[in-house]
Amino acid sequence: MMKLDGVVAFSMTVEAGSISQAAQRLGLAKSVVSERLAELERTLGTTLIQRTTRKLSLTASGETFLPRARRILREAQEATAELAARSGKLSGPLRISAPVGFGVLHLGPALGRFLRDYPEIDLSLELDDSFVDAASGGFDAVLRHGAVGDGRLIARRLAHSRRLLVASPAYLERHGHPGTPGALEQHRALLYSNRTSDWRFTAPGQGWSVIRPRAALRVNNGLIMRDAAIEGLGIALLPSFFIHQALAAGTLVAIDLGVQAEGAELFLTYPKDHGAAAKIRAFGDSLRRSFGSPPYWERVEPAPRAAPI
After folding, report:
1. Same domain assignment for residues 110 and 186
2. The domain boundary residue, chosen from 66, 86, 106
3. Do the domain assignments include residue 108?
4. Of 194, 157, 153, which is closest to residue 285 (Cα–Cα)?
5. Residue 148's pLDDT band (boundaries 50, 70, 90)?
6. What domain count does the chain have?
7. Which CA distances in Å does 243 have to 178, 225, 256, 293?
8. For residue 306, pLDDT beyond 70
9. 79 lies in a domain?
10. What residue stretches are annotated with the HTH lysR-type domain (predicted)?
11. How far apart are CA 252 and CA 245, in angstroms?
């Protein structure tokens, strides 16, 4: 029967480039690694590595077996991590990227809950509003609101958020309430510079309509857009997770035009066959519990407001 320690010795020897370097990384004697590798070859009935005094090279059988060996080790790591997750004993590093605005508003308490449940995890969080590639950006997982059309990734849905048209009462008093989606083109718009500037709406039984508003401000941060709207600089189309408190306080007013904007889905994305998948799943499950279903930012009641002018 093939032993896992032989697979480890083979994979590490290929990665390190020599048996002596593999032994050093594994903390074993060179003779132990060499014997484990030889036992694996005897079990498989073939030579995996061609040994010379100057270098090691993979045989054709080694080339064939290498991706399977790596998959075996990933699955063993996954199984170990999943059992650890069930007992609450997950540990080790976990590096996460998230958008700045969402992270500032919602991740502090959620991370506290997660780390209380898994105190042995060494969590790193970096906030960044630019696009972060979850497959090659150096992170274990990336929080993202928006579509994830990448076959290299697993995308776990964490929460939903409506997008709402909002403005301050002072702006609407000065400029009036738009009565139709088309009337938005005559208003000052606060636009997110990292997305298309089009606003898309739909109504029951109808397709999508596209509005191209006139920009008063373009910015790549949702919190700045929210604050600019509160200051009366224009109308913004923002996810409810940015504006729920302002709506409750009455500093922003939702503009109801009888149409619905595209929603904002929040995903946790990570590469397929990731070695830290058990930790990532535990992190996602913890976030979902913290946000609730529906999420708490969708349960806030707007402040009473006057009828449109």
Report:
1. no
2. 86
3. yes
4. 157
5. low
6. 3
7. 20, 10, 15, 18
8. no
9. yes
10. 2-59
11. 9
- Which of 86, 101, 123 is the endpoint of a domain? 86
Two structure tokens written together for 97: 């990227």
In a domain, 301, yes or no: no
CATH number of the CATH domain containing 275: 3.40.190.10
Global pTM reads 0.68
Say whether both 178 and 255 belong to one domain: yes
Q: What is the mean pLDDT of residues 56-80?
A: 82
* pLDDT for residue 308: 46
pLDDT score of 296 more than 70: yes
Own/partner contacts of 76-80, CB < 8 Å, gap of 24 or more, are 76/4, 77/275, 78/275, 78/277, 78/278
- pLDDT reading at 1 higher than 60: yes
